[in-house]
Write a structure and sequence with these properties.
By secondary structure, the protein is of the alpha/beta class. Helix content is 33%, strand content 22%. The chain is built from 11 helices and 11 strands. The protein has a 6-stranded mixed β-sheet, sandwiched between helices. β1 and β2 form a beta hairpin. The longest helix has 18 residues, at 186-203.
């Protein structure tokens, strides 16, 4: 069974034309796939459709999105079980979406909201076990020692790692990352990408990540799907994405996809790899002092 299955998906914006145009895509369980394309190619729109945040055209031609074998939308309408299916999908945005006035731990434990009664989530009443799960997820991304800090005091890269930890607490089977490193400095970007790759390798979580620079896709994603004008123009091994091939696909637009002087230089053996390889795994005890300080 595929993790993600998309058939004939289109999305038209009045006055702007088609953002997606008859997209067909299958992503297997446990894959790590990069989505690339110039600005306006449809990357973010496709991710939002997979997550069930928006719906495609209701044109009677199909337009089906399935996640884990469950239909999340069809012919412009969300499926009856879409809300339940969405709990299996973790979405990481460029903007981090952490609540600045709350601690990193509280932001992370919010990942359990899909599994607890609404009233308990609204009152912020989380159990010690739920907080411990959040601490374990923060340890996984190397952030356990910052659990009690307000999110607003963290750097962009640290906040993005917190967002990844929240998705781990959600126990998502699929992780969708929409330009997660676009606003980060190169070192933080490498760290975030290494963590995503680490999660994919260790736990078999399916990861689909949209990226603006192809060198990161080349380094971290075995498979790449390239979009242009809402259509898939390439779907295959990332190693085939040479600068000359990208020029064939995108013409002058290829210049915004290639980071000058760094093509293929970011990879799992980067300076940050050791940090994630040695991180605590979910289910691994977090230092007692850290748990006591953070959970009370």
């Amino acid at each position: 069974m595929a993790a993600i299955e998309i058939r004939n998906l289109s999305r038209t914006f009045p006055g702007r034309g088609k953002a997606l145009d008859g997209v067909d895509l299958t992503v297997g369980r446990g894959e790590m796939v990069g989505l690339i394309g110039a600005s306006g190619s449809g990357k973010s729109t496709l991710i939002r459709h997979i997550a069930g945040l928006v719906t495609g055209d209701a044109d009677g031609r199909g337009g089906v999105v399935r996640v884990g074998g469950e239909t999340i939308q069809e012919n412009g309408h969300l499926a009856p079980g879409a809300r339940r299916t969405r709990t299996r999908i973790g979405v990481i945005f460029q903007q981090f979406n952490l609540v600045g006035r709350l601690s990193l731990l509280t932001n992370t434990v919010l990942g359990v909201l899909g599994r607890v009664p609404h009233w308990r989530g609204a009152l912020g009443l989380f159990s010690r076990d739920e907080k411990l799960l959040a601490m374990q997820a923060l340890a996984q991304v190397g952030m356990a020692d910052m659990a009690t800090q307000r999110a607003s005091t963290l750097s962009g890269g640290q906040q993005q790692r917190g967002a990844i930890a929240r998705a781990l607490v959600q126990e998502a089977e699929i992780l969708l990352a929409d330009e997660p490193i676009a606003s980060l400095d190169p070192k933080s970007a490498r760290r975030v990408m290494e963590i995503l790759a680490h999660i994919n390798r260790r736990f078999g979580i399916t990861v689909v990540v949209s990226l603006h620079q192809v060198d990161y896709t080349f380094a971290y994603c075995p498979r790449t799907v390239a979009l242009r004008d809402g259509r898939i123009v390439y779907d295959g091994p990332s190693r085939a994405l040479t600068p000359s091939f990208l020029t064939e696909l995108y013409g002058a637009q290829s210049e915004e996809l290639i980071l000058p002087g760094a093509y293929g230089q970011h990879g799992p053996e980067s300076e940050d790899a050791a940090d994630t390889q040695g991180a605590a795994l979910p289910g691994t005890p977090v230092p007692v002092a850290a748990v006591t300080a953070a959970t009370g």
